[in-house]
Amino acid sequence: MEELNTTGSSAKTEHDDPLVKVEDITVHFEGGRTGFWGRKRLLVHAVENVSFHILPGETLGLVGESGSGKSTTGRAILRRVPVAGGRIFYRGRDITRIETANLRPLRRHMQLVFQDPYASLNPRMRIFDIVAEPLIVHGLARNSREATGKVSELLDRVGLPPDAGHRYPHAFSGGQRQRVGIARALALNPEFIVADEPVSALDVSIRAQIINLMQDLQAELGLTYLFIAHDLAVVRHISRRIAIMYAGKIMELAGRDDIYENPLHPYTQALLSAVPVPDPKVQRSRRRIAYKGETPNPLSPPPGCRFQSRCPRRMDLCTRQSPPMTERSPGHSVACWQ
Amino acid sequence: MWRTGWRERLQNLRSLGLELWRDKAGFTGVVMIAALLFMALAAPLLAPHSPADQDLMARLKPPVWSEKGTWNHILGTDHLGRDVLSRVIYGSRVSLLVGAAVVLVAGIFGTMLGLIAGYARGRADNIIMRWIDTQVAFPGLLLALIILAVIGPSLITVIIVLSINGWMVYGRMTRSAVLSVRETAYVEAAEVLGCNSRRVIFRHVLPNLTSPLLTLAILEFARIVLAEAALSFLGLGIQPPATSWGLDVSSGKDYMFRAWWLVTFPGLAISITVLAINLVASWMRLISDPQEREKQFARQMAARGRKHRRKEAAVL
Amino acid sequence: MIKEPFLEIENLEVHFTTRSGIVHGARGVSLHLGYGETLGIVGESGSGKSVTVQAVMGLITTPGEIVAGDIRWKGRSLLGPRGKELLQKIRGKEIAMIFQDPMTSLNPLFTVGAQITEVLRHHMGMNRKQALSRAVELLELVDISAPEKRLGQHPHEFSGGMRQRVMIAIALACEPQLLIADEPTTALDVTIQAQILELMADLQQRLHLSVIMITHDLGVIAQLCHRVAVMYAGEIIEVGDAGDLFDYPIHPYTQGLLRATPRPDEVTERMVAIDGVPPNLISPPAGCSFSPRCRNARDSCCRRPSLVSFGSNRRVSCWCACEAPGVQE
Fold first, then answer.
1. Contacts of C219 (CB under 8 A, 6+ apart)
2. I need a surface site. Which of A71, A278, C130, C253 has the fewest CB within 10 A?
3. Torsion of CA A229, A231, A232, A235, to 10 degrees
4. What does residue A137 show for φ and ψ, rounded to 5 degrees?
5. Which of A120, A128, A148 is the closest to B189 by Cβ?
6. Residue B255, pLDDT above cutoff 60
7. ipTM of the complex, rounded to two decimals
8. In angstroms, how far is CA B109 from the centroid of its own chain?
9. Averaged pLDDT for residues A174-202
10. In B, which residues are within 8 Å of A148 by CB distance?
């Protein structure tokens, strides 16, 4: 990989320079204390040595089950959680240890769409104020009145009726609230959006609407997405590349079709076989790949591969050393000793 | 363009009023509070005499319905011939004034500190919480005596003493409410947008604390009324010739067996006020919880349905 | 093949009184379930699926009310004062229910063993020793390893999937004949969901359980159910055998739902969505509730269709279906 210059963000990015790059990032959380007098600090190893990059205009799907560290990774990129090791680059600029003063202008470029449409909108604020707030906070409008034009445009763009502005969130359904969340994220014309399970809390027929909306917006505005999900079925349509996470590490990273047609890591294979197919004949004749065992304890993960406790192909090496990501074919990397 | 029509606001108010009307307990409480307020504001117009007017010819007169009672002094007079009714009416001023003042002062101070402790966490949180813990442990009456010794008893002293003793509960409650609110997604959304702490606290956290805070304030109001009465009863609060219900109970206790009305009417006034406040607080707590509000509404509708059916059955 | 109906729901209407008006949670729902059958009820939020089974279990309380219709268990009504008595006896014993969120369904203060044995001692009159050994059997039944040790643990020591297994164990404690599962795997990870569904399929076969499975996920239905009922806006709009329904969905909503469900084994560039949103149940539409979103909407759709038989085992509530050949009224 060629060296990236870390000078100014004013340098024009060529189309194969990644917009976002994370290199070996590790995130630990305080997990409580133990030992006599509580001297020993327990750390939750939420994310461990994760690396990937996202090119401008593309969508990277980040898939994992609960506890995999996918949400934490998204928030680490947005600098919402401190990073214990590794580096994060945005437009070639190292933003890992960025100071608060410089963080604010950066927020205009990266935004977040939340999972829970019911909790992510302030119940005491009108829709108009919710969407106008980013404009006011960043000085693009001095008050609500000035922001009217832009807010109307945003609400229209996400498919909400024009009179939605003066109503409160509780008057809207989950899908509509998620549209408000998207409108809010778009207010500052960001380049990069982290979508943290944006459709998990929605009904199946509404999911399709929201994902189509996000795809349309991506084409229209040239957005780059990190699409976090726990469902391999949902990311297929919107992602160009997909990364699979387990217990804080990336297990496999490949182009979209590769993951589905040729999954190499045992966990990916298990994940794929676990998604129920809405077709009784197919579903009942499938042989599900089931692995016994438990997920590793995030407070004290064992040395070696994180998947060892459940992997049917475990070798001795797997219990001693953690496998690195190795490229098996162009664009398809796996972290497995096999 | 984005403002709600005043028509919509009016409609909301109307449906709120209807709900209140159907909740008899809450309605009674509100009516009683309104009456008290009216009494306090229009005291000079309502009271037949000045509360300090002494009429030594008419000492210890019983209420009008007793043998020796007169219409001149409907609820009787005290040992100095002062009209009990007038004193009760004027006494409401003190209770309501002290209640409002203390709730405002203690409430604002306590809420501010609670906001800081809950949002900032870390050292500020620790310092504030330990301050609260220490003050809570300090006996309130002792503090009252100390301040009294320094400033001397008066209305202002009462307000100061009760405020100093009363802000901690707001601090603790606000802090715990902030701790839960700050974990919500919409607060995180505000931070991700780039809002600074001040904006997050005042625009996002505080508005979502108003219902528990309001309920707390109302209940504290009731407690302050009682506390002021207690202080004045002990001679540490309002001093004669000013009137306060507590003071009247205190001076009346020496004549309790001869002139029961001296203790009873101020005491009743205190009880009714506190009861009214609690009824209103109950209703407000119900209103601020959307689920409970819906259940209450359904119960009221069901009761109306039964009433109508009974009426129809009676007519047929 | 028509089995003797175990559970019959007839024209169920449930209303919820709210400040904004009366919400028609269920509008004339009719269903039947035979012995050993698994019926899946699929629908989005607000479709009335949870309301229907809550009515069966007698869980509808203020502001909700069953205003019309009947629910019969083995021929005897569960509504009305005598029905309520019967319900008290069979609830938990002959009909058991498991819910979506295993974290809040178990009491965090008591051990898992205490919660299982409580049910056994209360409903089956067992003494402590009997109850404990039966509890161990139950945990083994749901594939929990080291059951004796697990009995002494508290819910927070179990993972989400394990907790749901415990819930199933408690539900099965009294050997019910009908298990109602209200979105039991929605809150679980997909690999855990797969385990739980397999467990349920296994239990269903071994214990000859009848199951009503409520979900919004068609994949779950495909795995587990013999028959499927599709609900929309408080009514059943299509019901039939699972394989048949998935192969030949008749109602436009069912078709839309199938198309909108992403499949990992299919490649499409764009997901197919159903435009619009479900109707407001406070003033439900007079005609067909799906017509505002339906591509084939016509004039006749302003009248509300009823369920008509279509072929041997299918019933659909749609005017377009009525006009197709092979329909028996």
1. A275, A276, A277, A278, A283, C261
2. C130
3. -50
4. -65, -35
5. A120
6. yes
7. 0.84
8. 17
9. 93
10. 1-2
The CA R_g of chain B, rounded to the nearest whole Å, is 24
* Beta carbons of A78 and A112 less than 8 angstroms apart: yes
Q: Which among C193, C222, C270 has CB closest to A212?
A: C270
Which distant-in-sequence residues (6+ apart) come within 8 Å of C39 by Cβ?
C31, C33, C210, C211, C212, C213, C225, C226, C227, C228, C229
Q: What is the pLDDT of residue A224?
A: 94
User: Phi and psi of B40, rounded to 5°?
Assistant: -65, -45
Instruction: Please give the average per-residue pLDDT across C9-21, as a whole number.
Output: 88
Other beta carbons within 10 angstroms of residue A29's beta carbon come to 17
What ranges in C173-251 are assigned the alpha helix state H?
190-207, 218-224, 242-247
Tell me how far apart the alpha carbons of residues C219 and C264 are, in angstroms, rounded to a whole number.
11
In the sheet that holds C5-18, the strands lie side by side as C21-34, C5-18, C64-73, C76-77
From chain B, the residues in CB contact with A137 under 8 A are: 193-195, 199
pLDDT computed for residue C101 by the predictor: 82
Before B241, cis peptide (omega within 30)?
yes
Residue A10 confidence (pLDDT): 37
Contacts of A67 (CB under 8 A, 6+ apart): A247, A295, A298
User: DSSP character for A287?
Assistant: -
β-bridge mates for residue A54, sequence order:
A20
Number of residues in chain C: 329
Residue pointed to by tokens 């004339």:
C28
Among A74, A76, A71, A70, CA closest to A98: A76
Which chains pack against C, by 3+ Cβ pairs within 8 A?
A: A, B
Q: If you ran DSSP here, which 8-state letter would residue A108 be given? A: T
Q: Which two tokens stand for residue C168?
A: 């199933």
Interface size between B and C, measured as CB pairs under 8 A: 24
**pTM for the full predicted model:** 0.84
A286 touching B (Cβ < 8 Å): no
- pLDDT recorded at residue B170: 95
Per-residue pLDDT reduced to its tens digit, A79-94: 888 899 899 999 888 8
Q: Give residue-wise pLDDT tens across range C216-248.
A: 888 889 888 999 999 999 999 999 999 889 988
Q: A59: Cβ–Cβ under 8 A, 6 or more apart, which residues?
A: A218, A224, A225, A226, A227, A238, A239, A240, A241
Please state the φ and ψ torsions of residue A26, each to the nearest 5 degrees: -130, 130
